[in-house]
Design brief:
single chain, alpha+beta, 6-stranded mixed β-sheet, 43 helices
Length: 1009
């Protein structure tokens, strides 16, 4: 009985042990199966991933989230989206649509995961025209595999052998590609031994999937700690199951993405190198398509065996260089060669490659490209409009340069009419051919009178008024250089300045209308009698004698005021006496209305008009000129004299600085000595002023050099040394004795002590010296001479006020030349600025923004997608509508009866009826002070600023900058004829249907200023 009991006890225990063993075996088998097949992970993670979604909805998302780091996110602009949005909102754009994340995706990000979605291997700036057609596309990286089947199997096998051998194991379709458990265990074990200070073999635990997460999304593309590694594994695991539990396709996509996006350092002259295809081209000069043909298994005979082996060696080297790209590709290429050789042998030993390929690859040299790949050749002429848009995007977005702009995941809808742009560009490109120029009517009297048509640069911009602003439709020129004539050229355009002058004249008349239109006739007559300027007198007198005091009536009357065109008068302006001439001598004896003078562009009328404008601003200044000039003892005069001294002194400093800059102390003193008459006293004054701490012996040496008879005796030198010391005489006295400008003496002395001083530092240091140099002015008893200098300052202040008025209407430069010659172009202009001035006239005096980009769509198809559009413009009324109506009438008169008559009837509407066309012509020569005693013409420009109908306006220019510019005698008739020649190319745009817009533009300010 006892034996039976023991027997059953053994059986029971054996059964329990067997059951335990079977259970452990089952658990081990299940764990082993899970590690190999990921069955449980597939079910859990695929369900989890299915909830990590996002959708794009109308309006801004106040809870929008954007990544904060990661090379991929930084390159494509995802990290900078908040700053992009803020910058665009400040410039009138609003978020139209934006992505919303699901709750699960937000929680996944909260726990540290990366946003999971189908990421783009290739992205970049895309620009479309107004109709949605792509006109520019920057794709980075340049070379990518579009699918797995396009990758040569040899490359796949090599990559997997090096990095992730189990990735494409077809036996386990649900396998999690983020982890290879044996490698992870080895890496963990290695780290554990290292933490204990024990020797160990280093294992890499990263799969291709986690490597992609690392170099795309981890800060700086690095794994900083264990937590960062867990983020990579978790994100890669979830990303693999986005399409369901079967990861077969996802694992193949991992290979594609890795080869397309692995970072391969950067190269000066090219930038960041991304992906295998770009790496082959940048580092070795190997064409991507050639490499794929050479390594494709189905076409091993596509290239010679030697070339195939050399390409394979390059591919293998790049796959290995990914471990430390800068080290292997830039710093230690020999180490890369050694590593590549070792892997070639190992790959052959394991059967990945044939021994013949191994041997040929070992024999091939790893020849790196000496120079970076050249930029893609393209014509600047054909891309001028696109480049203008890219430059404008740099002003819209906080992006440092075009390189970074082109790499943004951004699609832009511009306002360019690309079909018209192409037609216009094609005409401009052909104009260098004299036969084409003649065919288009550009040759002849006042046009091109030379056969060298290739030297003339033409440009055109056309804008269309719309509900969001002034849309840029065409921007083109035929200059095959990056420089953009329309936006950047500074041109002396002569008569186009008369348009700005006429605007100023009419603005003053409108301002006087506001001041006086409500007064009684008696009050107006009294105001006219007391007025200190001609325009005030005229307006007050006109209003006193008319029953129609409307602004439009006054504008019409102002255009009928008469001015003499006589060129024989001398004008004191710009600190000197000036004579001016008319272009056509037939006008010399005429007295013309403003309207007639504008129609025929008569210079002297506008010189006198500018004189009236400046006189008005002087009279309206803070101090009455009558009072200021009446009493020589008026203390209010001193500040004006001080300003005169400072301004003129600065001009002299500028002149002297050009003489003495970049000279050593001794050379500067030598030059100054050569400019003084060789008289002992004068030379002594100069030397003692410049070298105050010198000794008598040094003065003696200086005199010996410059006096023909040599230095005087020691006693005489000592007397000169003591008598002319700078401590005994003022700067003005020393300059008087030396017969040289005091500021020249001061500058040379200052540069002795401050050789590296900038001009701005010199001007700041010379404030007191400038006042000392003009001390005589404050003591002068010659009231007329002092009054003349005060009048100069008053004139300059008036031009400062005029400049502010011009800047308000788009004038592009920081100063005006303070001379009546500004009325005929001496202050220059830009084509773009003239077009902006014309926009006020087309828009009835309302300032509207210039629009080049209507929509900007960032990160399409991502959880960061943000689509922004420009708001309809809220304009600002800067000019009275009556004033702009008057200007429009004058501009149309120029085309109907004046200098632009050849455009009459050229443009028509949809019914074939002539459109109203207006404009102002202008011609000018840019002169340089490069000829002794005179000027040399260095460029010639002509322009026509125009409006067509109620919607279109712009500028067209012709420009020559050439040593032989004197051969080109064209006038503003040339750009007018060019616009006529471009009419067939422009007509489809002109007759296109306008966009839907409000009948009137909303204003933020009423009335004209």
């Amino acid at each position: 009985m006892e034996q039976r009991s023991k027997r059953w006890s053994h059986v029971y225990r054996a059964t329990v042990l067997l059951a335990a063993a079977m259970t452990l075996a089952a658990l081990a088998w299940g764990l082993s199966a899970e590690l190999r097949a990921s069955l449980v992970q597939a079910g859990v993670l695929s369900r989890f991933a299915s909830n990590l979604t996002f959708r794009v909805e109308e309006g801004a998302n106040p809870l929008a989230r954007f990544p904060r780091s990661g090379p991929y996110n930084e390159r494509l602009g995802y990290t900078r989206l908040p700053s992009f949005i803020a910058a665009l909102e400040a410039k009138g754009y609003v978020v139209q649509r934006q992505a919303r994340l699901s709750t699960h995706l937000e929680q996944f990000l909260d726990y540290g995961g990366f946003a999971v979605f189908r990421e783009k291997d290739q992205a970049g700036l895309e620009i479309r025209d107004k109709d949605g057609g792509t006109i520019y596309a920057a794709r980075h990286p340049d070379y990518v595999y579009t699918d797995f089947d396009g990758i040569p199997p040899l490359i796949v096998a090599t990559l997997l052998f090096i990095e992730n051998r189990e990735l494409l194991d077809a036996r386990f379709p649900m396998r999690n590609p983020a982890v290879e458990w044996n490698r992870l265990a080895g890496a963990t074990y290695s780290l554990a031994l290292e933490s204990l200070g024990l020797p160990s073999k280093r294992y890499g635990g990263s799969t291709l999937a986690t490597q992609i997460e690392k170099y795309r999304h981890s800060p700086d593309g690095l794994t900083a700690d264990v937590f960062e590694k867990l983020r990579q594994i978790a994100s890669a695991s979830v990303r693999a199951y986005l399409e369901g539990p079967d990861t077969t396709a996802a694992r193949r996509d991992i290979v594609v993405s890795y080869l397309n996006s692995t970072p391969l350092a950067g190269r000066s002259g090219f930038g960041e190198v991304i992906g295998l295809g770009e790496g082959l081209w940048v580092w070795f000069g190997t064409d991507f398509e050639e490499a794929n043909r050479a390594l494709a298994s189905e076409s091993p005979d596509a290239v010679s065996p030697e070339r195939r082996a050399a390409i394979y060696r390059q591919v293998l080297s790049l796959l290995l260089a990914q471990r430390s790209p800068s080290l292997y590709l830039r710093q230690n290429k020999d180490a890369l060669k050694t590593l590549t050789d070792a892997h070639l042998r190992h790959l052959a030993a394991t059967g990945i490659i044939e021994p013949t390929l191994r041997d040929a690859a070992l024999s091939a040299s790893l020849a790196f490209r000496v120079d970076p790949p050249p930029d893609e050749e393209h014509s600047f002429v054909t891309r001028k409009g696109v480049n203008a848009l890219r430059a404008d995007l740099l002003s819209l977005l906080p992006v440092v340069d075009l390189y970074h702009l082109d790499r943004l995941d951004l699609r832009v809808r511009s306002t360019l009419d690309w079909e018209t742009q192409k037609r216009v560009t094609e005409v401009l490109r052909r104009l260098s051919d004299p036969a084409v120029a003649a065919e288009l009517g550009l040759t002849g009297h006042r046009l091109l009178e030379t056969s060298d048509a290739s030297k003339v640069v033409y440009s055109i911009t056309i804008y269309e008024r719309g509900n969001k602003g002034n849309y840029l439709r065409v921007q083109a020129d035929n200059l095959d250089q990056p420089f953009d004539i329309n936006d950047s050229a500074k041109m002396d355009l002569g008569s186009t300045a008369k348009l700005r002058t006429l605007v100023s004249y009419l603005e003053i008349v409108a301002e006087l209308h506001r001041h006086y239109a409500h007064l009684t006739p008696e009050e107006l007559r009294a105001a006219a009698a007391e007025a200190a300027d001609t325009l005030t007198t005229w307006v007050a007198s006109y209003l006193a004698g008319t029953s129609d005091r409307s602004l439009q009536a006054l504008m019409d009357a102002a255009m009928q005021r008469r001015y003499s065109a006589n060129p024989d008068q001398t004008f004191f302006t710009g600190r000197g006496l000036h004579h001016f001439a008319n272009f056509d001598r037939k006008d010399n004896d005429k007295v013309l209305t403003v309207s007639e003078a504008f129609r025929h562009s008569v210079n002297l009328v506008f010189i006198r008009m500018m004189r009236d404008i400046i006189a008005y601003y002087v009279a309206e200044g803070p101090v009455s000129p009558r009072v200021l000039l009446a009493d020589a003892k008026d203390p209010a005069r001193r500040p004006y004299l001080e300003r005169f001294a400072d301004r003129e002194g600065t001009e002299f400093l500028t002149r002297f600085y050009r003489l003495y800059r970049n000279k050593s102390a001794d050379d500067a003193l030598s030059l100054l000595g050569s400019r003084v008459r060789p008289v002992p006293e004068r030379l002594a004054v100069v030397f003692r002023s410049v070298r105050a701490e010198s000794a008598p012996s040094e003065l003696a040496a200086f005199l010996a050099r410059w006096l023909p008879q040599g230095a005087p005796g020691a006693t005489a030198v000592t007397r000169l040394f003591e008598h002319y010391g700078p401590d005994r005489l003022s700067l003005a006295d020393r300059a008087y004795l030396a017969r040289i400008h005091p500021l020249e003496i001061w500058l040379v002395e200052y540069l002795q002590r401050n050789q590296k001083a900038s001009f701005s530092e010199i001007v700041a240091a010379g404030t007191d010296a400038r006042q000392q140099a003009y001390a005589w002015l404050f003591r002068s008893s010659r009231k007329r001479a002092v009054d003349r200098r005060i009048s100069m300052v008053l004139e300059e202040e008036a031009f400062d006020r005029l400049h502010r008025q011009w800047q308000r209407l788009g004038y592009p430069f920081p100063t005006l030349v303070p001379s009546y010659a500004t009325a005929i172009g001496s202050s220059a202009d830009r084509p773009r600025a003239l077009a902006e001035l014309m926009s006020f006239i087309v828009n009835d005096g309302v300032r509207l923004p210039t629009v080049k980009e209507e929509e900007l769509d960032f990160a399409e198809g991502t959880p960061y997608e943000t689509d922004m559009v420009l708001r309809p413009a809220a304009g600002e009324q800067l000019l009275a509508p009556e004033l702009t109506a008057t200007l429009r009438k004058a501009l149309e008169d120029v085309v109907a009866e004046g200098t632009a008559r050849r455009l009459k009837g050229v443009f028509v509407d949809n019914d074939g009826n002539p459109l109203r066309v207006g404009g102002k012509t202008g011609t000018g020569d840019d002169l340089a002070d490069s000829v002794p005693g005179g000027h040399q013409e260095v460029s010639r420009s002509a322009a026509f600023v125009f409006l067509i109908g109620d919607r279109f306006f712009g500028t067209v220019t012709a420009h020559v900058a050439d040593p032989g510019v004197g051969r080109f005698k064209f006038t503003s008739a040339l750009p007018v004829q060019l616009l006529k020649s471009l009419a067939p190319a422009l007509q489809p745009l002109i007759t296109s249907l306008p966009e839907n817009r409000e009948k009137s533009v909303p204003l933020v300010a009423s009335g004209a200023r």
